[in-house]
Design a protein that fits this description.
Blueprint: E1 4-9, H1 16-27, E2 31-33, H2 52-57, E3 60-61, H3 74-91, E4 94-98, H4 102-109, H5 120-133, H6 135-145, H7 147-150, H8 158-171, E5 189-195, H9 199-216, H10 218-224, H11 239-247, H12 252-275, E6 280-283, H13 285-297
Parallel strand pairs: 1-4, 1-5, 2-3, 2-4, 5-6
């Protein structure tokens, strides 16, 4: 295997984008975005998407490719990335994948289990139940159809609950029985680096980044998509707090502070997830590029 995918991941706010750009420039290769919210157009401030200057510094893929109304998943991301890689390998021996969406990174590095295609009838029926009876009703159905998966899922995540119920209905068996967890063999090398810094420093960076988002116009960006607040693409930190402020359930100060807190919680969740992966090499942002180049040269 002469081709190598270098993954730059880690908690939100740690500096992954700058590291990936520098590495891509050193290797003269492209960057594959692995952030599930940066996939969408219209919310660049909330998602801390690469700026026009950053996009010009290295060619990026999967940034702002979908409208907010469009659905997208880790499984589709796997399919799309695997279709893209052959063209990148024709250009050179390396590609950089950058992002902190755990399922998206795993989808490319390990693969997603093959699941049945959901028919329009099943999808429509689940959407109708959600609209008429609410999320709690679907959670109860999932607990009946697949208690094992229901016990592990985030039951507040509308998209995942709906998807699980759709799979159970379509397949006629519990979703959990279709999840093998077996890693797929890839025909390229994978180097995984996770960036991290001291917890206090990370949290300070997160707090300052939220303040910068507010200064950069996050409120105006959120107001522009407020009428679409029911969409899963907007079920994300930053938008949820802004929407709560617009709804009158939070004042402005509370919304901003809650956004900081929820971002810090998400960062801790990312760190916990990635620490389970023995294939990851942990580095500081300052060490990342030199470590990646050293590991790549050893392949």
């Amino acid at each position: 295997m002469s081709k190598t995918l270098i993954v730059i991941t880690g908690p939100t706010g740690v500096g992954k984008t700058a590291t990936a750009i520098e590495l891509a420039q050193r290797l003269d290769c492209d960057i594959i975005n692995a952030d599930s919210r940066q996939i969408y157009r219209g919310i660049p401030i909330c998602t801390a998407a690469p700026t026009p200057q950053e996009l010009a510094a290295a060619r990026h893929h999967f940034v702002a490719i979908k409208d907010l109304e469009e659905s997208y998943s880790a499984a589709q991301f796997e399919t799309d990335v695997m279709a893209l890689l052959p063209s990148l390998w024709q250009q050179g021996d390396y590609a950089v994948m950058c992002g902190g969406s755990m399922l998206y990174v795993d989808a490319v590095c390990r693969g997603i289990d093959q699941l049945p295609d959901i028919t329009p009838a099943v999808r429509s029926a689940v959407k109708e139940k959600l609209a008429l009876e609410g999320l709690e009703s679907l959670v109860k159905e999932l607990e009946s159809l697949d208690p094992e998966y229901a016990a592990t899922i985030d039951q507040r995540n509308t998209s995942r609950v709906c998807h699980a119920v759709e799979i159970c209905r379509q397949a006629g068996v519990p979703y959990s029985t279709l999840r093998t967890g077996t890693a797929k063999r890839r025909d390229f090398n994978i180097i995984k680096l996770a960036l991290n810094i001291e917890r206090e420093q990370l949290f300070d960076r997160i707090n300052r980044r939220v303040d910068l988002m507010i200064e950069s116009g996050l409120e105006q960006e959120a107001r522009a998509v407020y009428h679409l607040r029911h969409l899963n693409s907007l079920n994300t930190v930053g938008m949820k707090e802004m929407f709560a402020m617009f709804d009158g359930t939070m004042d402005r100060h509370t919304a901003i502070e809650r956004m900081k807190k929820n971002t810090r919680v998400y960062a801790k969740k990312q760190l916990t997830w990635y620490r389970r992966d023995q294939a990851i090499t942990w580095v500081t942002p300052d060490q990342a590029v030199s470590t990646a180049l050293l590991l790549a040269s050893a392949q």
